[in-house]
Design brief:
The complex is a heterodimer of chains A (about 280) and B (about 180). Chain A is an alpha+beta fold. Helix content of chain A is about 50%, strand content about 20%. Chain A has an eight-stranded antiparallel beta sheet. Chain B has nine helices and no strands. The chains are: A alpha+beta (about 280), B mainly alpha (about 180).
Chain lengths: ~280, ~180
């Protein structure tokens, strides 16, 4: 069975609808591994079913969000560490006094006062130490947060390169590199468009971070006229990640990116066109 | 589609793995209505549906590390959790078998009785119930997606060959795609 027959058999729809037994699912997954064209088809089916779900959405009652979050966090409370005084403090006070002779009794009182004094000193030392430890801990937490942020950024970059590599290897994806049009300023961005011109992604390779109140905008030249292909998220421009182009038809003789006011413009500001590439 | 693309799928997954409250807020804001829509289609009862919605979010939260991008998109995974949780809820109440028997008896009648189903869904607040599908396609989607029937079960229930079930599934999705693309 060739790819076209396989797609037209409806087995991919059955897979996404969850109507295949485990064995059938494994067959489809293996087929996708062998043939990336099927992956695109699967994604189209998933998109359609998601649209179907969106079309039937039902808004939950307003209290549900807080209720669900409480349920989630309730389940995590078991991991919380209970704070409290060290048990040795209680023990230092809670010993029993037996009826004994005067010296023995006075010695007991002396021992009690020494014990109490020691306990106060110990508490003070522990309090001081816990303050130092708290400071150290908050430093570690900050470090972990920063490592987490760096980790997220790194994984996103790697994912971006993997996706970019897959798209470049995919015969059905056209790659259009947009080069700088400003002399002395090396800039670049890449566009990936599928063969049906229905799906595309833009990746910023090297563009300056847009100043406050400004945003990059993608344009397609169609019959010599610029057509808006949407603005590029400021985060995307900052982090060199990839953005899906939210247009159903992505075609043109050439593509360009210009710097525009936030929210985009109806026509491009010609002197602010930074990169351009022919398709 | 997503209301705001503040996070990409990878970002959302990573943030969920990091147990971020913002990720939960984003997830809830963007997906609660879609997930509840699917759940309501299965359980037909708003109160039960709300319980299932809660279970769904807890499962997404607790099992985010088990999500495998090679098997499909994150929203498909979440929709499947919602749908399967709803089907499990019915099953736990012994209603799924009743439902399967009913579907078997009424499979053909259901095509003519769509108005009844719409009345039921209207009373529980389903906003957009008017089907865009041909009746013979709608029943296949309903059985597979909202009742959890396998290909084989659909074939036996509707008494049509397995190959026809698959091709109707494809036609149904294509019809939907044509509607949404326009």
């Amino acid at each position: 069975m060739d790819t076209k027959e396989y797609i037209e058999s409806g087995i991919l729809e059955a897979y996404v609808l969850g109507a295949l037994p485990a064995e059938g699912e494994a067959h489809v997954l293996a087929a996708i591994e062998r043939n990336p064209e099927l992956e695109l088809e699967i994604e189209n089916i998933e998109n359609t079913l998601f649209q179907f779900a969106v079309n039937n959405e039902v808004t939950p009652p307003p209290h549900m969000e807080a209720k669900i979050w409480k349920k989630i966090t309730d389940g995590q409370e078991i991991n919380n560490v209970k704070e409290g005084l060290p048990s040795s403090d209680k023990e230092s006070i809670n010993f029993s006094v037996h009826p004994v002779g005067w010296w023995t009794a006075n010695l007991r009182y002396a021992a009690l006062w020494i014990g109490l004094g020691g306990s106060i000193l110990l508490n003070a030392a522990l309090f001081f130490r816990s303050g130092v430890q708290r400071n150290e801990l908050s430093g570690v937490v900050r470090q972990i947060d920063s490592i987490r942020a760096a980790n997220i950024s790194l994984v996103l970059t790697v994912n971006n390169y993997i996706k970019s590599k897959k798209m470049m290897a995919d015969n059905d994806m056209q790659t259009i590199v947009m080069h700088t049009v400003v002399k002395g300023h090396p800039m670049a961005a890449t566009l990936y468009v599928n063969k049906y011109k229905t799906e595309g992604y833009v990746m910023i390779d090297a563009l300056p971070v847009p100043p406050d109140g400004m945003q990059y905008q993608l344009w397609a030249m169609q019959a010599g006229k610029p057509v808006d292909m949407g603005t590029i998220d400021i985060d995307i421009a900052n982090t060199s990640t990839m953005q899906k182009i939210e247009k159903s038809a992505i075609s043109g003789e050439a593509f360009a990116i210009s710097l525009e006011k936030k929210g985009g413009s109806i026509v491009p500001t010609m002197e602010n066109i930074y990169v351009m590439g022919k398709s | 589609m997503l209301a705001q693309s503040t996070y990409t799928e990878q970002e959302l997954i990573l943030l969920l793995q990091q147990r971020s409250k913002e990720a939960f807020n984003y997830l809830y804001k963007n997906y609660c209505a879609v997930l509840l829509g699917v759940i309501v289609k299965v359980v037909y009862d708003q109160e039960t549906a709300n319980d299932v919605l809660q279970e769904t979010f807890v499962k997404i939260w607790n099992n985010i590390n088990q999500y495998n991008p090679q098997k499909g998109r994150i929203y498909t995974w979440m929709l499947n959790i919602a749908r399967n949780s709803a089907i499990d809820k019915l099953r736990s109440k012994g209603e799924i078998m009743k439902s399967k028997i009913q579907m078997g008896d009424d499979a053909v009648n259901n095509i003519q009785n769509r108005n009844n189903v719409e009345q039921v869904t209207d009373t529980i607040g389903l906003r957009k119930v008017v089907s865009t599908l041909k009746p013979e396609y709608e029943i296949i989607i309903n059985l597979a997606y909202f009742k959890g029937f396998t290909l084989d079960e659909i074939s036996k229930t509707l008494n049509i060959p397995l190959g026809t079930v698959k091709t109707r599934m494809r036609s149904a999705i294509q019809q939907l795609r044509a509607v949404y693309n326009n």
